[in-house]
Specification:
Strand 8 and strand 9 form a beta hairpin. The strands form three sheets. The protein has a ten-stranded mixed β-sheet with strand order 2-1-18-17-14-3-12-13-16-15. It is an alpha/beta fold and 401 residues long. Helix 6 packs antiparallel against helix 9. It folds into two domains: 282 residues, QueA-like (3-Layer(aba) Sandwich); 97 residues, Thrombin, subunit H (Beta Barrel), CATH 2.40.10. It starts with a helix and ends with a strand. The protein contains eleven helices and 18 strands. Helices cover 24% and strands 27% of the residues.
Length: 401
């Protein structure tokens, strides 16, 4: 265990010029470039040819979370702007119930220009369905992620308020304000469940036509739902990985997905790092079930994958999870994960990942290195030299374990 914690983040650095970062997506998603790494060889094509580079009849598992318009802007009487970035619901904690809330709700937030927010309450006027709404924000705590109580009148749902006045929280490294077109381009075509403050960007390349093309060629599709938090952009500032605290993210997995993983085991393609983290977390939940450590929402901690005794094979673990759901008349597995996937990690479920190109010194790059080893350096060097576009709105890759 100690060896994993001593991994130095400086080994996962590379030079990323600003001009290599895609500030906007391509007009047609599927025309993005696609790097393929298979049998330790690098090749390239375009995303519209992805059916030719994936393993035949594979099960593709993607994240169907939907990015919420989480940035709210208030203006003080003095003219000063205060931005409130809704990170995570606190009351109610369930995302669906939160967006259905009327009158009040509490969120953990990031507050921009917080030093100038000295009044107890900020107010914003808006109109929804011809009703005049007064939205107030009250700071209940201070610090980096204060608790904010939102209150409003007329029994309008909070989800409607975000839809009306919220802005899409595009990544900070784009160094621009969000625009109207980001509301569509920063969502996957299969996004369904509100809750993320960042898109699962590997899925941004898919179009409905590409998905139908894959289905026509006997590829299968399933979805997990993991709500991506702002922690996905949290830089690793410590010298070693053991000093970095990973963020928690909530997810749900349908029983039918687990059944399909069993049927297609050995031929699983994860669309994006969030899908990888979710799928790999299932095994460690199964270990808890085996120990009868039941919970309404299971928790997978940061270093659990390296500390737990892994004495159950993966298929038995998946069957154990299904048995647990059946006994408790449940159709979904609910959990939150802090799992940290670093070089040396032994993958339990995935065989291939579709993913974008990630920031230097990031936990996402560590995950990629866990999949393909030190060859990530050759792949990223190739991408930089061959005009691939990087980060959220950039190009894509298919990497075989």
């Amino acid at each position: 265990m100690q060896d994993y914690k001593k991994i130095e983040i400086s080994d996962f650095d590379y030079s990323l010029p600003d001009e290599k970062i895609a500030k906007y997506p391509l007009e047609q998603r599927h025309t993005s470039k696609l790097l393929v790494y298979k049998d330790k060889k690098i090749s390239e094509t375009h995303f519209y040819n992805i059916d030719t580079v994936l393993p035949k009849n594979a099960l593709l598992i993607s994240n169907d979370t939907k990015v919420i318009q989480a940035r709210l802007h208030f203006r003080k009487e003095t003219g000063a702007k205060i931005e409130i970035f809704c990170l995570e619901p606190l009351s109610p904690t369930d995302y669906n119930l939160m967006f259905q809330s009327t009158n009040t709700c509490k969120w953990k937030c990031i507050v921009g220009n917080q030093k100038k927010w000295k009044e107890s309450v900020l107010t914003k006027e808006l109109e929804i369905e011809k009703q005049k709404i007064t939205l107030t924000a009250k700071k209940l705590s201070s610090g980096a992620n204060p608790t904010i109580l939102f209150s409003w009148n007329n029994n309008i749902e909070f989800g409607q308020i975000l839809e009306k006045i919220g802005n899409i929280p595009i990544p900070p490294y784009l160094n621009r304000n969000s625009e109207e077109k980001d509301k569509q381009s920063y969502q996957t075509v299969y996004s369904k469940h509100d809750g993320s403050v960042a898109a699962p960007t590997a899925g941004l390349h898919f179009t409905k036509e590409i998905m139908q093309k894959l289905k026509d060629k006997n590829f299968l599709f399933e979805h997990i739902t993991l709500h991506v938090g702002a922690g996905t952009f949290k830089p690793v500032k410590s010298e070693t990985i053991g000093e970095h605290e990973m963020h928690f993210e909530h997810f749900t997995v349908n029983k039918t997905l687990i059944e399909n993983i069993i049927k297609n085991y050995g031929n699983i393609v994860a669309v994006g790092t969030t899908s990888v983290r979710t799928l790999e977390s299932i095994y460690y939940i199964a270990l808890k079930i085996a120990r009868k450590e039941y919970a309404e929402e299971f928790t997978v901690n940061q270093w659990e994958a390296y500390e737990e005794k892994q004495d159950i094979n993966i298929l038995d673990a998946l069957k154990l999870t299904i048995d647990y759901l059946n006994i408790n008349n449940l159709t979904k597995l609910r959990a939150k994960t802090q799992i940290m996937i670093v070089p040396g990690y032994k993958f339990k479920i995935i065989n291939v990942i579709i993913t974008n190109f990630h920031q230097p010194k990031s936990t996402l790059l560590l995950l990629i290195s866990a999949i393909i080893g030190t060859n990530w350096k050759n792949i990223y060097s190739y991408a930089l030299k061959n005009k691939f576009r990087f980060l959220s709105y950039g190009d894509s890759s298919v990497l075989y374990t």
